[in-house]
Write the structure tokens for this entry.
Amino acid sequence: MIVEQGRYLILQGKGISYILRIHEQGYLLHVYYGRKLRENDFPYFPSAPRSFYTFAPDQVFLEGESQEYPAFGYNDLKEGAVEVLADGKIAALSLKYKSHEISDGKPAIDGLPSSKANGVACQTLAVTLSDDAYGVEVRLLYTVFEDSDVIARHAEIRNSGKGALRLTRAFSCCLDATGMRGSETDMISLRGAWAKERNLERHSLFQGVSEIGNRTGESGHYLNPFAALCGRATTSDYGDALGAMLVYSGNHRFRVDVDAYDNIRLACGIHDGGFAWDLAPGETFRTPECLLCFSWQGLDGMSQAYHDFLRAHILPQRFRSSFRPVLINSWESMYFDFDEEKILEVARQAKQSGIELFVLDDGWFGKRNDDTTSLGDWYPNPEKLPSGVAGLAEKINALGLKFGIWVEPEMANPVSELLKAHPDFPIACKAHPPVLGRNQQVLDLTDPRVVEFIGKFLDELLSCGKISYIKWDMNRSMAEVTEPGFVHRYYLGLYKILGDITEKYPDVLFEGCSGGGGRFDAGMLCYHPQIWTSDDSDAIERLRIQEGTALCYPLSAMGAHVTACPNHQVWRTTPFSTRANVASFGTFGYELNVARLSEEEKAEVKAQIAAYRKIEPLIREGDFAVLHSAFARGNFTAWQVTSKDKKRAVVLCVRTLASANAAGERVRLRGLNPDALYTEARSGRNYYGDELMYRGFFPSVPSTDFASVLTEFVEESEETNR
Ligand code: GLA
């Protein structure tokens, strides 16, 4: 999988090649990342001759070369991946090749979440570069997996000298996109805000910098730690796309530079604003992992490659192939207003409807009857839960349901016993009064006492053995950060807590959350196999949120609930069936009071769960495709998910607004076997795969507002064909 050929180091993935070259003067150059090339004996791409003046000491003008991990300021005046202060002065780094090694498997990154081999053959290349004059050593690690087109990269920077060093930038990855030209390339990012997370943003690159990032102390509602470059003509099923995703939940930055010669440099990693890291002699800093992905089959190809990779190498494997329980969450149906009797009434009805897990959301602890108090006081409110958490869990279990509970471990309200006893637990700049967000403060997870407190209360909560699920929330951004590098230290603390608790309770399903989807990233997915996608549960708004999220994150990672109407975020009324159909393209659940549903609706819930159970294996493992994008102008969205063996395809079509005299919507499927005969479950009609893909079918979505159709195409067995 990794081949050494003269000065070339060649990483061969499932369908991609990633090629590096060690220059005669010792620089590590990037040659290629793209569709798989054969290994051969001649130089892949001789460097383009340069006729202009160079100031490079070795007659190598690095600005004119593609580099793997450049530094600004010596012989390259483009933005670099690493910046170091030595004795308070900017180090003019000239990093040169020292050694490399190739090993089987995938090493973990100390203190940080990262991808795992999980039984799949993979190899890791580690190249060491060094600048002996400054005492800086950089180890670049690349893992290539047999089953994937994703390359996992990160860097380790070591103080190999005698003096103190300070890192002021340490990106995970820098990629000179050799196959792309700036003037022909678009950048795609996932932008948003609370209740409108991960909407697609696409713009043309230009000479200069296009950048996204977040400094709010979490991967963020605003800009997700993901970016893609694609050809101007790339669509969902055509063209090249190159993605970069961080396995990280803190501050991040993605920078795309286009230089005067139309060359593209993509660099990403921890946001260097407010970042600094001191390295004493012998100390090493490890960057988060970056997952690079290349597709020549359009954006769907990139999405599918990321989905496959995250499922196989990021998500906790114990939840990969098991059914996720269909849950009912108390938040939108009861908010803070509940007691044991009310909970049990909903749980009884839920059980009768086929729901499997009851989740008690916010409001069960301390004196919490609204959001002004008690975060940090993690003991049950005796008025609401007279038999405690364990007692309630037991009663829920006795009804035949699993029990889950909400926590927000990283926070405390100033009005809490915790902060009365430990006023120094939260982050505070001390120069000004504390900044509150949703009436709460962020605890300082760099403080080992805080880490211990959180670990202990979670352990006490879970030790009753009756809790099957935890919803881990985080409902405000960080402010008052005064120490450079603090946010990264915070995440080292958080990852330690998450690692310890999920290891101790491996069967408990954790769902991440941050004011909806404010921390939806591959770092969190290493611990939480699912994340609450957004607090906006309106089925129509969810079309964009879920489609944007699915650009790189698998459907099974997206918590998606059927909620009551009028919807609590936009006051829209949509058909019950559409709410269920859209939620079916995620990890399915309910967030409404089933006890208040009509008998007819209760029967519908049963049918919805049964339908979901049928398609769930595809949602968990299948190939997702966007047939009509929710972001395109128009009124119509269509998605498809297909089993790997191409024998089953589920198609969802949603009309947003009805319009008079509208043309019929023709939907063309993708990725089927052209010669196979498929039966559409709804109509019983037969179609060959080629007809469905090249000619399409008419889904006959009712011509009313917000109507939808969820249908399935199943390949006839050969028996039936004859
Ligand atoms: C956040 C979450 C919601 C809910 C509330 C509880 O907003 O996103 O789902 O848990 O907190 O306060």
